[in-house]
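A reminder from the course coordinator: this example appears on the midterm review sheet, so study it carefully.

Given structure:
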């Protein structure tokens, strides 16, 4: 009897292998029909590739235009094609002129912008992280009411608050000072809500309870255990705050009169409007070059902090 089973075994294995091969062929056919429904075996879509390429060109077109025109002189800027080179390569001369024009006021605007970003956006990130963590991990009366207030604050546009803020700061004597720009930048309802939700998903309550059982204080638990887990959310909140403060235009416009406290956005706007005034000198080449210098720190920040997003996505994919 054992000899008979031994003789049939190779035939059984061949039948099993044929069934496996048949199942694989059917799976390939099904995958070819279903396309993106099977992430392990996606199907190429030329329409989607073309649409993605067009969207990429749309996003990169202003940057390319800015880069090309920052290499032109003022006369070439007005007389040559926008996407074509000028008669001379004047990028370095334009950069030098930007930092020396009007006694180097551009450098002062750059320092002002960095001040508003470091103090304003940095403070907004710190308050958002600490507030979001507290709202997520502590239970207290009125917690749901705070959530309603945060969502309501997110729905109010910043322009609608500009006039009340101006009247309030005027009563306090803070207009035309850096505090008129820094203090409103410290409040970020979206950042607070984002960190609240991110803390709920990224910091296990069991981990915090284990730290408390081991005798760790709430401060130590926050800085040594929770804060490293919140790195992707902190980076996201920081970039939103940095970009919002760096590109802030309307709030400084109504709060500041002294051009020595202008940020880059308001200063470049003043340079651009200079040609429209009586006897004003057209300096569009300096405006374009200054705009290029203005966006370089943002590009560097995005590229440098991209790894934190990638690590956060991969870590979240394996959490249960």
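Designed residues:
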């Amino acid at each position: 009897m054992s000899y008979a089973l031994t003789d049939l075994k190779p035939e059984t294995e061949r039948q099993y292998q044929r069934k496996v091969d048949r199942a694989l062929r059917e799976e390939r056919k099904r995958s070819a029909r279903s396309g993106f429904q099977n992430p392990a075996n996606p199907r190429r879509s030329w329409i989607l590739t073309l649409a993605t390429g067009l969207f990429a060109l749309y996003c990169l077109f202003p940057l390319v235009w800015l880069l090309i025109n920052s290499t032109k002189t003022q006369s070439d800027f007005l007389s040559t094609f926008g996407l074509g080179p000028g008669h001379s390569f004047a990028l370095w001369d334009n950069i030098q002129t930007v930092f020396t024009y009007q006694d180097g006021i551009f450098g002062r605007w750059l320092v002002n912008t960095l001040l508003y970003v470091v103090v304003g956006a940095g403070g907004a990130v710190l308050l958002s992280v600490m507030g979001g963590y507290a709202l997520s991990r502590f239970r207290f009366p009125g917690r749901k009411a705070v959530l309603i207030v945060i969502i309501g604050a997110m729905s109010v546009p910043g322009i609608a608050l500009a006039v009340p803020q101006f009247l309030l700061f005027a009563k306090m004597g803070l207009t035309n000072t850096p505090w008129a720009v820094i203090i409103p930048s410290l409040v970020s309802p979206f950042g607070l809500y984002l960190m609240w939700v991110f803390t709920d998903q990224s910091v296990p309550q069991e981990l915090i309870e284990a730290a408390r059982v081991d005798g760790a204080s709430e401060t130590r638990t926050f800085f040594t255990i929770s804060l490293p887990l919140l790195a992707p959310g902190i980076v996201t909140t920081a970039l939103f705050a940095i970009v919002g403060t760096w590109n802030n235009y309307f709030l400084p416009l109504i709060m500041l009169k002294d051009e020595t406290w202008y940020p880059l956005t308001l200063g470049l706007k003043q340079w651009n409007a200079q040609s429209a005034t009586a006897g004003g000198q057209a300096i569009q080449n300096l405006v374009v070059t200054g705009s290029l210098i203005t966006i370089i720190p943002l590009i560097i920040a995005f590229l440098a902090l991209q790894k934190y997003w990638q690590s956060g996505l991969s870590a979240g994919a394996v959490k249960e």
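Residues 284-317 form the longest helix (34 residues). Residues 1-8, 316-320 have pLDDT under 50 and may be disordered.
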